[in-house]
Amino acid sequence: MKKTTIIFSILMAAIHFGSAQPSKFPPINDITKDKSLVTFVNQLKVAVQKKDKAFLLSALDEKVMSDLGGDGGIAEFKKIWNLDKGDTSIWHQLSRVIELGGAFNKSDPEGRYTFAFPYVHLIDLEDADDYINVGVITGKNVNVREKPDLKAKVLMQLSYDVIWFVEAEQALQKTEGTNPWGDPEWYLIETLDRKKQGWVFWKYVHSPIGYRLYLFKNKQGKWKISAFVAGE
Description:
Layout: H1 3-12, H2 35-50, H3 53-59, E1 60-65, H4 74-80, H5 90-99, E2 103-104, E3 115-117, E4 134-137, E5 142-145, E6 154-158, E7 162-165, E8 175-178, E9 184-191, E10 197-201, E11 205-206, E12 212-217, E13 223-229
């Protein structure tokens, strides 16, 4: 088995494949179950807000993964996120996944992916292929609009619903516009029963294969970032 496949299998192990497709997936935030984790996450939040590169680098495990097809390591992390040049979107991406909340990963065979942000990544799926197309509404009473426009007609409201990205298997091509960080601004989605479609603003929907942050406690008892990756 190739190294890439092994790493992918480990990182995707957080997605449990259950016996029934859930219709809703409300927020989970297990941080308070470990006081040392609370301290580390709070420090990380402050560092992200201040764009503190020194703290971020100190928080990385020496084998940190930043690319499912890469070799890992801090040098690779710095290169992928362009940290030496300062023009990076990592602060936005980290802020978003952390603010969504996270949970302990019970499917962690190596002990390196103990805690995962965002909670969306831990969704129970009926079929192993579903993670390519599925998404989760991450807010309450989120407007689904007729067009990708904040002034467009509201077709319905969804709260923590599991949805389908329309044509998500083709890199979520049914999108409109981009936000300040270059990500799609709007997503065309379908309800789980595939009876209704509409546009959702980017802040209120997330994919299990979007960016996810993994933390673990090393042998010295310190929390470290073991991976920050995206993709299938």
